[in-house]
Amino acid sequence: MSAVYDCNDRESRTEGLAAAAGAVRSSRLVVLPTDTVYGIGADAFDAGAVQSLLRAKNRGPDMPVGVLVGSWSTVDGLTLGVPLQARALIEAFWPGDLSIVLPHAPSLNWNLGTTRGTVMVRMPLHPVALELLREVGPMAVSSANVSGRPPASTAEQARDQLGESVAVYLDGGPSGDPVPSTIVDLTGDAPLLLREGAVSEAEVSEVLGMPVNGEE
């Protein structure tokens, strides 16, 4: 049976984070608050748990899951290399609402969906999410909703959609405006803006000193 923990209460938050960490290590799913919307997460290196995540969302591998990290340095171990452009974006916007697509390290044993050798990484600006990530390591995280339905901005909305498929719900209160993260792809010859979200195209272009629409 699913458990819900109020992370605005200190004791409940401590218990909830311990329960969530235990669930992740046991190949189960958790819902956690982030700085955008609520996310449903699993151990990024547990292929079975990631498949459970996709089933819970009624989503196929053609829409791969991104990875949340708890520190800047974690990215070095997940990717084939971190180019200067990526480091500039990380320094400017992490923790925060920017996701970066990079070639993943070929040695990693994971299955996040049809990624074509890439991984989308982000460090969220939310204390509960960061504490869990620093405890369990990188997590595969997607918005906490069934595909085709609105993203959850509260733990209750997430539970209404995902129910008992999730072991632990960490309730951090309303997430605010449900604006998704901005996604920048750095796997090609030029940076490409895949989605404009909380961080504007102009802000990204200013940091990189060049357009992010794929044009020279």
Based on the coordinates given, report the CATH architecture: Alpha-Beta Complex
Q: Tell me the name of the CATH homologous superfamily.
A: DHBP synthase
N-to-C series of helices and strands: EHEEHEHHEEHEHEEEH
Strand order of the largest sheet: 1-8-2-3-7-4-6-5-9-10
Number of helices: 7
Q: Classify the helix fraction into a percent range.
A: 25-40%
Integer average pLDDT: 92
CATH class equals Alpha Beta
User: Using only CA atoms, what is the Rg?
Assistant: 16 Å
Query: What global shape is seen?
Result: globular
Q: Are there runs of 5+ residues with pLDDT below 50, and where? A: none
Largest sheet: 10 strands, mixed
- Global structural class: alpha/beta
The fraction of residues assigned to DSSP E strands is: 15-25%
Report the count of strand segments. 10
CA-CA gap between termini? 54 Å
What is the count of structural domains? Answer: 1
